[in-house]
Design brief:
Layout (H helix, E strand, L loop, with lengths): L28 H13 L5 H16 L4 H8 L3 H7 L9 H18 L10 H16 L2 E5 L6 H11 L5 E5 L6 H11 L10 H11 L5 E5 L3 H5 L2 H18 L2 E6 L1 H9 L3 H10 L2 E4 L6 H10 L7 H14 L1 H18 L5 H16 L1
Parallel strand pairs: 1-4, 1-5, 2-3, 3-4
Helix pairs in contact: 1-2, 1-9, 2-5, 3-4, 6-7, 8-9, 11-13, 12-13, 15-16, 16-17
């Protein structure tokens, strides 16, 4: 009969005057997953219960909570939560896992509510569809588009709505070594990550943490082509492919159009052919948003659809710098109007646009 892996050793539990555990959870994700999997083998947990406990661990880490703070949210005693996530509960897990499952259901429902500051543009709808499909179908997908069109904002919003053990987001660091990229990815997976951890061990632990239920988002992956040497570039891209082959998790790779040129036709294109051919979807986003998105963003600031001189200024702004600049000008103009005690109108927007344009030309 299979035997369970030894429970994760206790972390040092700091306690307040009432005796409640107040320390932050210092466990590593791969250890929590290992213990949960072992308890499934011994019949102490069902796969669903194991999934809920691992989700809770991700939720705690993602929100940087203490054990006592997290326990209050779930409706558990702090010492109970401390033992449950370490596989040391010592009694039936059914009751506590039922509470965790209820809490997970409520939390995930709330996470899918739209952020009041986020506008669901056509870019969001496309990226949301691609990310959802990549996660469900367990295949790589590639997203390309010009800078400042909202790729990263949408990817981060998707990660926010589908987080806590499900979606792992990592931004490709510029001019990085292979080991730095691996450590960045380990951090996104909530793995213990210090100078004593060997990179080869870290690679295995990343793959042990991810599985077919996860989505890995690698944003700004063109940085590997534009700021890293050839050997580092190949190592990074091939490791991402290795992660997919070993875990069968969904993967979304996002980059500028330069990234696409290098990936599909650059100096190492033949090396990346294996990875590229595994891809399910390649999404190429337009350089500027459609009129409907311009109107949606304006509506978020309680403005009517722009026309005439205002629309001309916005189109010039989009041509130069993308939708990110359009939003920044709206924010700046709204702030200036508020400081002056004036209502925010398109005249406020044009005033800021003209002022900053004149400053740039001075």
């Amino acid at each position: 009969m299979p035997t369970a892996t030894a429970p994760v050793p206790d972390a040092v539990a700091e306690r307040d005057p009432s005796g409640n555990i107040t320390n932050y959870v210092s466990l590593s994700a791969d250890k929590v997953k290992e213990v949960c999997s072992a308890l499934v083998v011994t019949g102490e947990l069902t796969p669903e219960m194991s999934s809920d406990i691992f989700w809770l661990f991700g939720w705690i880490k993602g929100n940087n909570l203490t054990e006592s703070g997290a326990a209050k949210c779930v409706g558990l005693d702090a010492s109970t939560l401390h033992r449950v996530i370490r596989g040391q509960y010592g009694a039936s897990y059914a009751g506590v896992c039922a509470k965790i499952a209820r809490f997970r259901k409520i939390t995930e429902a709330r996470a899918h509510k739209r952020d009041a500051g986020f506008v669901e543009t056509s870019t969001w709808k496309k990226i949301n569809a691609v990310c959802t499909s990549a996660r469900i179908d367990q295949l790589p997908a590639f997203i390309y588009g010009a800078s400042q069109i909202g790729k990263t904002t949408c990817l981060l919003e998707f990660a926010r709505r589908n987080n806590h053990g499900v979606t792992k987001y990592v931004r490709m660091p510029c001019h990085c070594s292979f080991s730095y990229f691996v450590r960045s990815l380990a951090g996104a997976c909530y793995l213990t990550n210090n100078r004593y951890c060997r990179i080869d061990d870290m690679r295995d632990r990343i793959c042990a943490t991810l599985d077919s239920t996860n989505l890995l988002i690698v944003d700004e992956f063109h940085q590997a082509f534009t700021t890293c040497g050839m050997e580092v570039e190949r190592s990074i891209m091939e490791f991402v492919r290795e992660i997919y082959d070993r875990t069968q998790c969904g993967i979304v790779m996002a980059a500028t159009k330069l990234g696409r040129r290098e990936f599909e036709g650059g100096r190492n294109a033949a090396v990346y052919e294996q990875f590229r051919r595994r891809g399910m979807v390649t999404l190429a986003l337009p350089d500027t948003p459609p009129q409907s998105d311009i109107n949606l963003i304006a509506r978020a600031y309680k403005l009517d659809a722009p026309t005439g001189e205002v629309l001309a200024a916005i189109r010039e702004m989009l041509r130069r710098s993308g939708v990110g600049m359009y939003v920044k000008y709206l924010q700046k103009a709204a702030s200036v109007a508020a400081q002056r005690g004036e209502p925010f109108t398109w005249d406020s927007f044009l005033s800021v646009w003209a002022g900053l344009s004149a400053l740039a030309e001075a």
